[in-house]
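Exercise: predict the fold of this chain.
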Amino acid sequence: MGETLPNSRKRYALAVLFALALAGVLVQWLRPFRPALSPPAAYTLTIASNSAYVGTCPVTVAVGSGYFEGEGVAASLQTHLTGKAALAAALSGRAGLATTADIPIMFAAMQKVPVSVVATFFKTEHDHGIVARRDRGIATLADLKGKRIGVSLGTSAHFVLDGFLSRQHLARGEVDVVDLKPEQFGAALAAGRVDAIATWEPFLDELQGALGRNGALFYAEDIYEIPYSLAGSRDFVAANPELMRRVLRALARGVRDCRDRPAHARAVMNAVLRADTDAWATRWQRLQFGMTLDQGLILALEDESRWAVANGLAAPGETPNFLDNMYLDALVHVAPAAVTVIR
């Protein structure tokens, strides 16, 4: 049998062990702090976006909150003034995906440019409208007759303007339509080169604010509900099925923040954009954030394609099968109940 250590030797051994353990703790504590390194992102993605637009909230928040990073995607925003320009960047390969409304998607399909919609993430009717000068005798929509109206031709605002005119039983020839770029709106309206502007947010707010009491603002409620979507070239989307799934999982978290935590979402947008988005708070309850691919988008694209042909904006021909422009696989995998496209 082994001999039992005397109590004095036991105490000495325990003291030595304690001292060694304490020294190890102190060494670790005194070492410079090094955060744990995240594994490298599996994918890199550039998203073309008119991120100063409230509808892009889910994408902007997903970038600013690290939701893409959490899915292994190093995502960055490429800023554009319009969704039309953003989609053009994605279709030309200057970006992977784009945030855009339905009209640019329709025109791409009409021109046989292979475009794929991955998901719609935002809708609202309180987005497009007309700002007019009261000193030009415009107090109601009927007063637009005979007036000069600025608009960017071939955009959703152009589609909405025709809807306004139709509601007032005004023929296109009864107004003078002036093609303007968005960056020209303010100067043209202030100088009186046009009497009104048909456009979308945030330009509506900016123009109305500049005119003050001299401004009359008419929203396109019951005329047009804008669906804002994530889209890209068919080749890029189809070649990256796993990336599309990761993107939608990150986007779903951005959607939830914008829908359920609006103050937090606006704070994230303020940080990302280095701008003040708090002016949007008053209309937030009219904004619909949710991830879908629905039959309504296809019906809207079909209606808009007929409008484009009737106005000479697209060549006559058979209406495209816009189902071919819906990329269903990723959303079916991530949120199958969100896909209501008839197929």
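Check your answer against the key: Residues 7-30 form the longest helix (24 residues).
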